[in-house]
Design a protein that fits this description.
With 367 residues, the chain is α/β, with parallel strands linked by helices. The protein is built from twelve helices and 18 strands.
């Protein structure tokens, strides 16, 4: 049993804290007392962890930190935790290069696992598992979290911070084609894809490959695309082209305002998941290449739905994180430095079983 501090008690952070509390002593820290009040029988502290001294003081006595804060806070939070000499497993999707903290983590003797959610996260773990057994030539990941109930105009609800979601719509998308790095605008190359039980969804380029671009340079073709209901992308392109997602301040009646802040404030009530709202997570991963001298193809399919009063995106993200947190807490994974999730490919079978015990099932077909 370890003493674990979970930073952030939102929809995903709360699920993480509850799951870890089954086997560990957990303290949850958040600036929102309302979020903390939802965590029964868990130690809670209402505090602002954006302050470095405050954060480092709060994590003094713990064995492991789990990060579940908004992306704009993620890099600094991770840096502060590493400087404190604490191991960390993190789901924050921040824009900075996490390998910028690798030297510090090694100096401090810290195990720091980043991007430990669904995709990036479990998709990378699956990738790492097969990379050790075959010569991969093609990797494609299609993934999305969507509400069961389609409501006009966006047909979308957010589990994460609204600005984190908007970042997906504006951050240039990188993918690898014929061993060359291709950079395109987010929301580009829209395609319609059919999924059994779900129907037709819309896919578009997003920047989800993340660390794979650096750690898997020998794989000639890699791409990740986000899924939404058909028609959603057109709305987003209109907002983007009109400047609603811009970080550049504009003058509004003498007040300098970032348009993205206004947009996030306006969209949050429309995207917010209310009590009783249900969602699903769908992911399709196709890995092709040579294995034992033969051409092979693996297809992983995930269709996870809201259950046990817990939204699917929080389950699929949170339980991947808690699986890895258990491996780090128990000493089963102890690589010093920054670890992207693909480095945990050797633990794929254990992590998959952990998820299955919680009702998250990755089904695989081999051709």
């Amino acid at each position: 049993m370890a003493n674990i501090t979970v930073l952030g008690a939102g929809l995903v952070g709360g699920v993480i804290a509850k799951d870890l509390a089954k086997n560990h002593t957990v303290t949850s820290i958040d600036i929102s007392q309302n979020n903390l009040d939802k965590l029964n029988n868990i130690n809670t502290i209402c505090a602002d962890i954006s302050d470095t001294a405050n954060l480092q003081n709060l994590i003094k006595g713990c064995d492991l930190v789990v990060g579940a804060v908004p992306g704009f806070m993620g890099y600094k939070m991770m840096q502060n935790v590493i400087e404190s000499g604490k191991n960390i497993v993190d789901i924050s999707f921040y824009p900075e290069d996490p390998f910028g903290l690798d030297k510090l983590a090694k100096q401090k003797g810290v195990t720091a696992v980043m991007d430990c959610g669904v995709a990036p996260g479990m998709g990378n773990i699956i990738f790492g598992h097969h990379d050790s057994k075959m010569r991969i030539t093609n990797y494609e990941c299609l993934v999305g979290g969507l509400p069961e109930k389609r409501e006009w105009p966006y047909e979308y609800q957010a589990v994460f911070s609204p600005i984190d979601v908007i970042e997906e719509y504006i951050r240039p998308a990188r993918y690898i084609e014929n061993s060359a790095l291709i950079v395109k605008e987010a929301l580009s190359d829209t395609e319609l894809v059919n999924f059994e039980e779900i129907g037709t969804l819309e896919s578009w380029n997003s920047d989800g490959l993340r660390s794979l671009i650096k750690t898997m340079p020998h794989v000639p073709n890699m791409i990740e695309k986000t899924l939404r209901y058909p028609g959603c992308v057109e709305y987003l392109k209109v907002l983007k082209e009109s400047g609603f997602f811009s970080y550049k301040k504009i003058d509004v009646n003498g007040i300098m305002i970032r348009p993205i802040d206004i947009t996030a404030r306006l969209l949050f009530p429309k995207w917010k998941m209310e009590s009783g709202d249900k969602d699903f997570t769908v992911m399709r991963i196709i890995i092709k290449g040579k294995e034992d001298g033969k051409t092979v193809s693996y297809q992983y399919n995930l269709l996870d739905r809201y259950q046990n009063d817990t939204i699917s995106m929080a389950r699929t993200t949170g339980f991947t994180c808690t699986a890895v947190a258990n491996l780090v807490a128990n000493g089963a994974y102890n690589r010093i430095g920054i670890s992207p999730p693909e480095y945990l490919g050797g633990h794929f079978k254990w992590i998959r079983k952990y998820l299955e015990e919680r009702g998250v099932n990755y089904n695989v077909k081999k051709n």
